[in-house]
TrEMBL record:
Origin organism lineage: Bacteria, Pseudomonadati, Pseudomonadota, Alphaproteobacteria, Hyphomicrobiales
Keyword Zinc: yes
Protein name (record): Creatinine amidohydrolase
GO biological process: riboflavin biosynthetic process
Family: Belongs to the creatininase superfamily.
Alphabetical keyword list: Hydrolase, Metal-binding, Zinc
Gene source species: Breoghania corrubedonensis
A GO molecular-function annotation: hydrolase activity, acting on carbon-nitrogen (but not peptide) bonds, in linear amides
Cofactors (names): Zn(2+)
Coiled coil: none
InterPro entries per the UniProt record, alphabetical: Creatininase-like_sf, Creatininase/forma_Hydrolase
Organism domain of life: Bacteria
Keyword Zinc included in the entry's annotation: yes
Length: 233
């Protein structure tokens, strides 16, 4: 259940019998011909659908992340790592203060990885709270399903092209893009990154069938639900 569909007394009642919450993390950044909010759309939806059978509250997605390399693409918003970690800290501190003692973070953006390291530190200071950091798209079973369909899958390619990340009236290119040279990309600034990767797809075809995408989604749901169920101790 979404926190946006609850009021504070309902949360207070929930906390009398359960202390688990789900927090999605996303990003606002270029995804070639897909929505700039792709990472946020996917993490919010994955968190909501995974938590629904358990009646666990899902907090609104943190829609901005760490993505400095894409700042040459209009619409991208990047937070400094220090800013981002401060936001994550304040959210976790707030959840703890209200009585949440188990938190599943469903992350949809690779650039948010510094938060995983921070969370380990935060739990050291808050040993009464358990936090799981879950990169839903590259968790073992989900990634295996992606590679089973097509091993050439990357940022802004088919693996992120779901019916709910596409834009109305925007056609996807009918080609297979060579994989970007990551070694070169890692040493370039934003403008040079844009020159290197062009439209923003890191490599691979731009779209697969909805049936194949649903198979990836179902793998992600099953894996995320397993984390909600536990173990937590």
């Amino acid at each position: 259940m979404k926190i946006s569909d609850m009021n504070w007394p309902q949360v207070e009642d929930y906390l009398k019998t359960n202390d688990l919450a789900v927090l999605p993390l996303g990003s606002t950044e270029q995804h070639a011909y897909l929505s700039l909010a792709t990472d946020s759309i996917l993490s919010q939806r994955m968190a909501g659908e995974a938590a629904e059978p358990f009646g666990v509250p899902v907090f609104p997605v943190v829609a901005y992340g760490v993505t400095p390399s894409f700042m040459a693409y209009p619409g991208t918003v990047s937070l400094r790592i220090s800013t981002y970690l401060a936001v994550v800290r304040d959210i976790l501190d707030s959840l703890k203060q209200h009585g949440f003692r188990r938190v599943l973070i469903v992350n949809g953006h690779g650039g948010n990885q510094p938060a995983a390291n921070f969370i380990a530190e935060w739990m050291g200071d808050n040993p009464d709270v358990a936090v799981k950091f879950h990169n839903w798209w590259n968790a073992p079973r989900t990634l295996a399903k992606v590679q089973e369909i097509d091993p050439l899958a990357s940022h802004a390619s088919w693996m992120e092209n779901f019916p709910w990340t596409r834009l109305a009236g925007v056609e996807q290119p009918e080609k297979k893009k060579p994989l970007v040279d990551f070694a070169r990309m890692r040493v370039k600034g934003p403008a040079a990154v844009r020159d290197l990767i062009g439209d923003g797809n890191f490599g691979g075809v731009y779209q697969k069938s909805d049936e194949e995408m649903l198979a990836v989604w179902q793998a992600g749901l099953a894996e995320t639900r397993d984390l909600i169920e536990g173990p937590w101790n």
